[in-house]
Amino acid sequence: MENEKSLDRQELQAHMRQAGRLPPGQVATDKFPVLHYGAIPPFDEDAWNFRVTGAVEKLLTLSWTEFQQLPRSSVRMDLHCVTRWSKFDTLWEGVRVRTLIDEGLITLKPQARFVIQHAERDFTANLPLEIVLSDNFLLATHYDGQPLTPEHGYPLRGVVGAIPGRKDLKDVYFWKGAKWLRSLEFSESDHKGFWEMAGYHNDADIWKEERIA
Q1: How many CB atoms lie within 10 A of CB 178?
Q2: Are 67 and 147 spatial neighbours (Cβ–Cβ below 8 Å)?
Q3: Following DSSP, what letter does each residue of 167-199 receive, concatenated?
Q4: To which CATH superfamily is domain 42-197 assigned?
Q5: Confidence (pTM)
Q6: Which SUPFAM superfamilies match (predicted)?
Q7: Which ranges constitute the DSSP H helices of the chain?
Q8: Do you find a cis peptide bond into 155, omega within 30 degrees of 0?
Q9: pLDDT bracket for residue 4 (50, 70, 90)
């Protein structure tokens, strides 16, 4: 059975490489490895909120109930981890940041150029504004039709991946989306996140293998 699984993975890997969907240095997997720093934080629905701060015309604070009432989107993406695994055709559901703008909940100031994701226990992840507003970034609450599990970021996480065939999007490693997300800070200047300050590459382009700075 293990040999059959290994053969299946090799076939998947060869197929995805031929299709141009497997970045250099990556290995295909059908599992979903759990990687994060520190313990899983508890979730208190009554105390939880989601905030938008920084270079916006008005600060925004939403309770968990209010967040769940926002218009929702689904996206299917390939995930590529800096630890070299790639998982294909993952299905996510949640809220696009662009939707928050279209609904008038967020109005960006002209100087907004970067977005800092602030998560539980002061964890941060940074991205350029154009990626956060693109189709391959999502404020995700569900994975594969089910609410996120605690180890994968419940109740909310930032997710960034690669949409097959979308050459117009910049594809970055999976660490650029923060688990247990609590706020977005729009900023005029970039601020390195947790892993970038530990030596990871700030741009994290998967096709250029930008793993370490």
Answers
A1: 28
A2: no
A3: TTSPPB-GGGS-SSEEEEEEESS----HHHHTT
A4: Oxidoreductase, molybdopterin-binding domain (3.90.420.10)
A5: 0.93
A6: Oxidoreductase molybdopterin-binding domain (SSF56524)
A7: 2-18, 64-68, 97-102, 129-132, 194-197
A8: yes
A9: very low
